[in-house]
Structures are given as structure tokens and as C-alpha cells.
Amino acid sequence: MKKALMTALAAGLFTLPAMADTVRLGTEGAYPPYNFINDNGEVDGYEREVGDLLCEVAKLECTWVTNEWDSIIPNLVGGNYDTIIAGMSITAERDEVIDFTQAYLPPDPSFYVALAGTDPSVLTSGVIAAQTNTIQAGEVAKGSATLVEFASPDETVAAVKNGEADAVLADGAFLQDAVDASNGELVIIDKVLLGGGIGIGVRESDTELKGKLNAAIDTIKADGRLNTIIKKWFSEEQAVY
Amino acid sequence: MFEMCADPSTLEGLAWLACYLTNGKHFLFYQSFATVLGLLALAAPMALLMGFAGALAKRSRILGLRQLGQVYVAMVRGIPDIVFFLFVPLLIDQGIEIIRHYALCADTSAPIYQGNDFVVCQAAKMPLSSAEPWVHSLYGFFLALVAFSIVFGAFAANTLDGALSAVPASQLETARAYGMTPRQAFWRIQLPQMWGYALPGLANLWQILIKATPLLFLLGIEDIVYWARELGGAKGSRFDYPHPDWRIYYFGALLLFYMLMTWGSEKFFVRMQARLSVGQATLSGKGAGL
Predict the structure, then answer these.
(1) Does the distance separating the beta carbons of A203 and B130 come in below 8 Å?
(2) Could you report the per-residue pLDDT of A42-74, keeping only the tens digit for each?
(3) How far apart are CA B239 and CA B244, in angstroms?
(4) Partners of residue A39 in chain B, C-beta under 8 Å
(5) pTM value?
(6) FRET partner for B2 with CA separation of 20 to 30 A, picked from A48, B65, B85, B153?
(7) In whole angstroms, what is the distance from residue A111 CA to residue A139 CA?
(8) Would the CB atoms of B230 and A30 count as touching at under 8 Å?
(9) pLDDT in tens, A139-152
(10) Computed from CA positions of residues A190, A192, A197, A199, in that sequence, does the dihedral angle turn out positive or negative?
(11) What is the CATH classification number for the domain harbouring A228?
(12) 118-147 in chain A: CB under 8 A from chain B
């Protein structure tokens, strides 16, 4: 009797993993048009659409999770979610800690944005705002300008508006939105091409998921669906596949 | 919410504001106030309970228990709160998952720590990946609650310990002289009188607890600070309700909320103190109730 009970219990425990796995997609939710929380409180944006499509193509069940940018990599490797889809450029430094799928967006030129009338010399001698742990922050740190870092993208733009920084460096599409919304207060003063495109971050040990996502990206690149989404969310200037 | 809100771009003035303040995102903001109040409502009694246990352990006549109480109080009081808030939830979370990994996974041959990765099988995840988002939120809230209870419990333990010592020894001696056992003297004489001495310290702790609730944000819980920052940030044309940087108004509202909370508590504690001091041989006891 006892043995039968134990067997039944063990069978119950070991059949658990057969359940459909849900892939938790991690994003920042503060970087329009890449990803943001819309007025209904849901994750929205380019990456929401791409992520949902990839899950459909790869036949995965997915849910969205938001996490601060600062701790987005530690919480991925800690297992709180399974992917990072948050406008994260593929870089060698990040590749040491996590793995990336192939890019799902070609490099988006980064813009320097400042208040209208700002002298372009601030790019070499002024104070430049960037978000912590971004390729843009790395770029500013390499140059001669002074870098000030902020935890969220919003704060980098706010810093320029209130005079704390002379200019901000961030992805073009994000800053384009801010410039459009500012009624001429903000202008683009320079553009640079940084990074090798944006990929989905996965744990290094998670080769199976990486393979599935890579295959799905191949599919939507080939049938043009990815380009349709890129055109919907980005400007004419944005390169497509 | 209202029918007129279907197309916000056509709205102006008060109608726009009414629709804006009742959109889905704002409801999440309002809900987060309940999260904070819920945390306070649960963390305070739990911390008090931890504190009571800690104080009794510290005063125990059994050496091991006494040392345990002393170590608990000294450790938590000596380590910065923020370190504890980051450490405790992580420890519990990974601890539970490691235990579940060995209990529930069919194949445990692969190491859990693989380079940077913390890998447990799907069935060992806590909560399961397939669980509803609210389950994940609730679990995060629970971890935060435990962290708050441990940290504030240690402070409460010290306060209660001090208050128990403050009850005049002569009263306890009198109780013994009347034939009460030490246990009876504790429950009938020492404990009821202790509260008057403990209250100022506990009231202080409550105020600190209220002010510490924004630490929830640090633990990844979408509390009022998270939503204030998220809603207040400048919103461009991608949003139904575009607006410039309004963080100052949102943070102002939080300021008001916390001021009201602490002001209300202060009033409550003043009345409570007056009640508890009646008949006590202390300064406030002589003043009150006369």
C-alpha cells in the first residue's frame, strides 16, 4: 500500500515537466517605439509585435514581463524570465554573459539630441546624457565629452530639457519620438551608427530556445513579415532586411 | 471607462483629464496604492510577531535561544536594510527553487549553476512559468513581505525587549509575593504594562515602515513609485494621451499620500499613548486622564 502510494506520488511529480512550457519574454517597457507600456497598461511597441509573431511561428506559449533595464541581464540569468527583447544591441561584452539570437532589427542610427540652438561643440566638450549600460553610454565614455548616466530612457531626455546635460545620445527611433513631441524645443544635432543590430538575449545554457527563436526569425525575415512590422513602427530611414 | 473616451484625440480640458485619469494604466497606479497599504497592513503585525518572538528569545533563560535572539537582532540591525531587502528575497527564491529542483525534476544531473546561469527545470520554477501574471506578482509581494518582517522584526524585538525591562521590578516582586508563578507574573503584570513603554518606539518604527515601502520598487514590484515614474514621464504621439514631463505632479501626489499616512498615524499614536499611560507612574501617565 505504502509502496503503491509512493509510486503514484512519484509518477505525479515526474509527469509535471511534460506540461506545456511558457516562455517568459522580458522587456523594459519604457523605450518607445521599441517597447513601452501603453495607456491600457499593457506592453506594446515594435518588440511586442515581433515577440508575439515569433512565438506564433515557433509555436511557443509566451507571456510578457517587464523589468528595470539596470537589472535586466541579472534577472535573465537568474531565471526570472527566459528572453530579453528590449532593444538590446548585440555586443561582445554582453555576449560574454548571455547569448544572442540573430538580429531582428538592423542597426538603428543613434542620434545626439539637444535643445534648439545648442552649439555642436558640446559633443566633444559638453555633458552628454545616456542610459546606463547601453552602447550609447559606452560610446560617450570613449569620447572626450562628460558622460552622465540615467537609469531610464525618459530621464536622459528630461536631463537635456532641464539643462542638466547638453545633449542626449540614444537610439534614433526613440529620440525621434521625443523630438516630434517637443514642438521644436529639441533638435537632432548629430547621428552615429552604433552596434551590430538588435537581438534577443537568452541564457547561455538555453540553446534549445535560442535555436527555435533563430529559426523563427529566419522564417519571418524570409517571408517579409518582419519588414512589414519594421515599417509600421520605424521611419523611412530605418534599414530593413 | 466613459464612452466619450473612445477617441482621446478629440477631447479637451476636463473631459480629457477625466479620461486620462481613468485609463487602464491609471487603474494599475491606483491598485498599487492598495499594494502598499496591503504591505503595511500585513508587514506591521508580522514584524510585531517576529519582534515579540525575538524579544522573548533574547530574554530567554535557555542559552541557545538567547544567543539566537541576540544574533538575529544584532545582525539585522547592523546590516544596511537595503542589503537585506536584496538578499532575503533572492535567498528564499533560489532556495525554494533548488529544493524543488531536487524534489520535482526527472533529471538532476546537470548542475544548477552553469557559468552565469541559474538553471532549474521547468517544474521547479517558483511560481511556474505558465502561472498567471498575478501569481508572479503575489509571489514577489510575499517575498518582499518576508523581507520587511525580518528587518522590522529585529527593530521591534529590541524595542519590546527594552520595554519589558522598563516595567518596574518591584511590581514583579509584588506579583511573586502574591503567589503568582513567573509565567503568571509575565502575562498578568509585565506584558500589559510593557505596551506603554514600547509604544513610542513602535510608533517610530511604524513611521519608518511607511517610509520604507518605496523599497518595494527596488524588489521589482510595481508599486506607487514605479507607476508615478512611468506615468509621469513625457509621452509622445505613440500614446493615446500625449503629455510633457509630469513627474513633478505624480511625485507631488506621492508626497501628499505619505504625509497624510504619517500624519494620520501620529494622531492615532498620540491617543493610544494617552490611553496606555493612564494610571502609570510616569510623567505622561500623571498628565493624562486627570
Answers:
(1) no
(2) 999 999 999 999 999 999 999 999 999 989 999
(3) 12
(4) 23-25, 239-241
(5) 0.85
(6) A48
(7) 12
(8) yes
(9) 999 999 999 999 99
(10) negative
(11) 3.40.190.10
(12) none
Is pLDDT larger for residue A20 or for residue A160?
A160
- Interchain proximity A204–B115, CB inside 8 Å: yes
Q: Burial letters for B193-223: b for 16+ Cβ neighbours within 10 Å, e otherwise?
A: bbbbbbbebbbebbbebbebbbbbbbbbbbb
Contact B129, A23 (CB under 8 A): yes
Distance CA B168, CA B162 (A): 12
Distance between CA atoms of residues B104 and B91, nearest Å: 19
Contact A55, A63 (CB under 8 A): no
Q: How confident is the model at residue A12 (pLDDT cuts 50, 70, 90)?
A: very low
Same domain, A97 and A128: no
Average pLDDT (A197-215) is: 95
Q: Do residues A124 and A158 share a domain?
A: yes
pLDDT of residue A18: 40
Burial of A50 (0-12, 13-18, 19+ CB in 10 A): buried
In total, how many domains does chain A have?
Answer: 2
How many CB atoms neighbour CB B135 within 10 A?
12
Residues A32 and A101 in one domain: yes
> Which of A16-30, A197-211, B29-43 shows the lowest mean pLDDT across its residues?
A16-30
CA distance A160 to chain B (A): 12
Cell of B51: 519582534
Look at residue B219 in the predicted model and tell me its pLDDT: 82
Mean pLDDT of the residues in chain B: 90
How confident is the model at residue B115, as a pLDDT?
84
Q: Which domain holds residue B209?
A: 3-277
Range of the structural domain that residue A116 is part of: 110-192
Q: A 200-239 residues with CB below 8 A of B?
A: 203-206
Same domain for A166 and A48: no
For the stretch B101-145, pLDDT in tens is: 998 888 888 888 888 889 888 888 888 888 888 899 899 999 999
